[in-house]
Amino acid sequence: MTPAPVVPILFGGLIAWSLYRRVRRNIGRQKLQPRRITISIIFLGVVSLLVLSASLQHPPLLFGFGGGLLLGVPLGLMGLRLTRFETTDQGHFYTPNTHIGIALSVLLVGRLLYRFWVLRDVATAPSHPPPLQSPLTFFIFGLIMGYYVAYRIGLFVHTRDKK
User: Cα–Cα distance between 145 and 143 in angstroms, integer?
Assistant: First the structure.
């Protein structure tokens, strides 16, 4: 095997493993940890601001990301409403809605796989936007960011109610 196909295979494997860990972590009962939730809110907010600032030069990307954020926030609030909270002797726990988390993960993975497939040879895909300039990809990323920021803020508020 030549070195050229090894890099994409390793990179693809790393992405698949990371996505598997992320999906697995979002399934089932989880302990409410205010510090972890706060770090997550800050991290997602910073990433969102960086993507937003990078898309200011390209209005279609800005509208795609902004539209995703606008739809992601109500989706996050709906996910929060479908979350089950419980308090036991071990502490406070929550069980997120599995369907929304998996649907968003599949949507993102599907879009990324599609973009990698279409852009595997840029010369044969002249009608598609160049890498990192697809409004639809920015929309899906904005949808996920809006969902998780709103959801995490709701979890944070819920942890404050439990003290």
Answer: 6
Domain holding 95, by residue range, is: 3-161
Helix (H, G, I), strand (E, B) or coil at 91: strand
Beta bridge partners of 91: 88
Take residue 109 and report the two structure tokens written for it: 């993975």
H or E, element range at 149: helix 135-161
Block means of pLDDT (10 residues each) for the chain, length 163 residues? 60 70 73 89 90 86 92 94 91 88 84 75 61 80 92 89 61
Output the pTM of the full model. Answer: 0.79
Domain count, the chain: 1
Write the burial class of residue 26 (CB in 10 Å: 0-12 exposed, 13-18 middle, 19+ buried): middle
Q: Please check whether residue 126 is in contact with residue 48, taking contact to mean a CB–CB distance below 8 angstroms.
A: no
On whether the CB atoms of residues 139 and 64 are closer than 8 A, the answer is yes
Scan for tokens 């994409």, then name that residue. Answer: 8
CA distances from 38 to 43, 48, 81, 82, 120 (A): 9, 15, 20, 21, 38
The type of residue at 118 is V
